[in-house]
Amino acid sequence: MMDSLEMALIQDILQRDNLVIEKLLSSNLLSQMDLIEHLKTINHTLNSELGIENQQIYLSDKDREKCYGYLKKHKQILFTYYEADYRKALLFLNLLLSEEDLNLQELADQLLVSKNTALADVKRLKQDLEESGIFLKYSRKSGYTLLGSEFIIRNELVNILKNLLKQPSGKYFLLETGFVQEYEVFLLKRRLAHLQKKAQLTFTEESMEELPLVLAFLIRRAQLFTSNWHFKFEKYDIKNTKEFPMYADIFRNVFGLNENDLLYLVLQILSATMINRKLSLSESEELVRAMDKFIVFLEEECVMQFRSREGLKEKLLLHLRPAIYRCLLSMNIKNPLTDVFIEEYKPLYSKIKEGVTVFEQLTGRAFPKEEIVFIAMIVVSSMMHTAEETEAPVFKAMVLCRSGMSISKLLLENLRLLFPKIEFVGAYAIHEVSQSGFDPDFIFTTIPIHTEITTFLVPPVLDREAREKIKMQVELAINQDVTKKTKELFGYLSDLFPEFCKEDAFMRIESFYTQNNQQEVAVKEDYFRLTPKHVTVIETATLDEALTEVFQPLEERHSVTKEYISECKEIFHQDYPYMMIAHECYLPHAKPEYGVIKPDYQILLIKEKVQLPNQENMQIVIALAPSIENQHVEWLLTINQLFLENEIQQELSNVRLDEDLFSLIERGLSTIT
Predict the structure, then answer these.
(1) Residue 343: exposed, middle, or buried by beta-carbon count in 10 A (0-12, 13-18, 19+)?
(2) Do residues 422 and 395 make contact, with C-beta atoms less than 8 angstroms apart?
(3) Euclidean distance between CA atoms 446 and 205, whole angstroms
């Protein structure tokens, strides 16, 4: 059995997120050597693998469960104090779920703080709740009471619960409140697992962790709140759908639920994220029509190409069905990558936001930016997947991610694009790894894990810095491992060796690398980097002359065929109003199969504007030779954003030479990227 100091260490480790060693040492008066010895004892007792990395305590989810279980078994309390955010959540839960009214002293006792601190917490909570339309009232007779729409109150409860569950210790904090019991949560989890089989769907791992606890707390609230309440779903008669009885069956034998309680609980399940669902695209004709419009918008406005439109529609439908329920419930899904994604893909996000209006018109509700980012992630992952394989994969890898389909698929496709010589078999949840029967060379994971396999810890969204870092790490891992380096070269040469001597060839290459440490670095051409050759300024031209002028450099650079230019001219004459991407700025283009040899572009400025047949003017023409792999999309969205800026439009009149236009565009791009 562990001693009291080791028990205290477990309590500290579970209570704090990203526990810094320095704080742990000072709070427990330990040296680092003492800490290492105590961790060894804890690991031996729990059969865990707690460790120190980058001056922080490393703790996997599995080991977290072991620590919590040990404390519970020995009747040790988990929380000896609560930080401010936890106190705020606990205060709200006590006001909402306690059977008796609580005065200030009783609240202070629950929060483990003084009355003065409790009063400050009450004032802060009161202010925050009023922004949501919930009011905290006090009377000498009944103490503190929450007033407001029950629908809004329950939504706030769900938001608070989900925020807590994003924290590593949040689940244990909620169980420690005593408002719900572990067996209740376990029963709900089993019934949700049964529902997955019955309804032929698969919730994300995150949803399966969150839902049972959220439902348990909502049941508790429903059983305490016996007054009449209601909420409206104007266009959706959910109670009369074939799904409703199947979902409602989860709450059989739960006493005290009225019709609205049951409907609200079912909607929580319907709004949960899924990674798979057996469904027909004909299930919602309105939604399918909206998706068709959305995809056409992406193809025409953004010049995106998708290998499988039907595949993209299925992915979108899988996300949009629960997203619509979330919007109708006024539930703002928590997407921790929202700001990171918007910063990394700013022009793309703006375009997707514009396209999402087709879904907003369908529901009559605005989509929050978190939902738009999830949709954008699906689009990006589907777009990336159109890339042709230019070399046979040498290594195999799997991606581990706790997040839902949108985030994990985006990460998977980003990695596929970064590492063409690695075959990525898919994105898995932790519990699926043992069932995969797969023995990879590498694991890319967003969650710290213990394994003998070469593993890379990556963020869910790879920004430029993260991409460069992971590329260096993988290259280094290959070059430092003789077997992997041999496998890499042998993969390229394998077809040159007869079958009977392949094993000997592999051994000789391995022996060579053992003695010689060589390294290759591949450089990939950036077709859409701005250079002076990509811009032209002319004084005047007719429409046909402008088209000839803008495509001529692409032909001279052997980027396109004459047939491609002819096709672009013909399409532009027919559809030019739909090719305007900014004020007086047009984008003539065609699909790559019409004669693109390599991706390219040219920007032409015509000083005396060309008048088009519809009496509109054209001053900027951008000839595009799109990439099959969609390499042009990010560039195009950035150029689109650039020419929408008023400052750029105003400065165009000062441009005289090619050099002036190049400097203007270069300066404008630097402010966007």
Answers:
(1) exposed
(2) yes
(3) 13
pLDDT in tens, 395-424: 888 888 765 555 677 788 778 878 888 888
Angle at 284 between CA 279 and CA 290, to 5 degrees: 115
How close are the terminal C-alpha atoms of the chain, in Å? 57
Tokens matching residue 321:
């069905």
pLDDT single digits (tens) 190-201: 999 999 888 888
Burial class of residue 428 in the structure, from the number of CB atoms within 10 Å of its CB (0-12 exposed, 13-18 middle, 19+ buried): buried
Q: Is 139 helix (H, G, I), strand (E, B) or coil?
A: strand
Give one word for 59, left, alpha or beta, with left for phi > 0 and alpha for psi -120 to 50.
beta
> Predicted confidence band at 573 (pLDDT cuts at 50, 70, 90)?
very high
Is domain 275-384 given the CATH code 1.20.1250.20 in the classification? no
Beta strands in 447-491 (DSSP E): 454-457
Q: What tens digit of pLDDT does each residue of 190-229 get?
A: 999 999 888 888 888 788 889 999 999 999 999 999 888 8
Displacement of CA 45 from its chain's centroid (Å)? 37
What are the extents of the domains in the chain? 4-73, 79-148, 149-272, 275-384, 395-515, 532-672
Q: Is 596 helix (H, G, I), strand (E, B) or coil?
A: strand
Residue-wise burial string across 526-561, b where 16 or more C-beta atoms lie within 10 A, e elsewhere = eebebeeebbbbeeebebeebbebbbebbbeeebbb
For 250, other C-beta atoms within 10 Å of its C-beta total 21
The two structure tokens encoding residue 122? 């009450």
303 sits in the region (left: phi over 0; alpha: psi -120 to 50; else beta) called left
Q: Which CATH number fits domain 79-148: 3.30.360.10, 1.10.533.10, 3.40.50.2000, 1.10.10.10?
A: 1.10.10.10
Alpha-carbon distance 296 to 269, whole Å?
A: 31
Separation between Cα atoms, residue 442 and residue 421, nearest integer Å: 12
Q: What is the CATH number of domain 395-515?
A: 3.40.50.2300
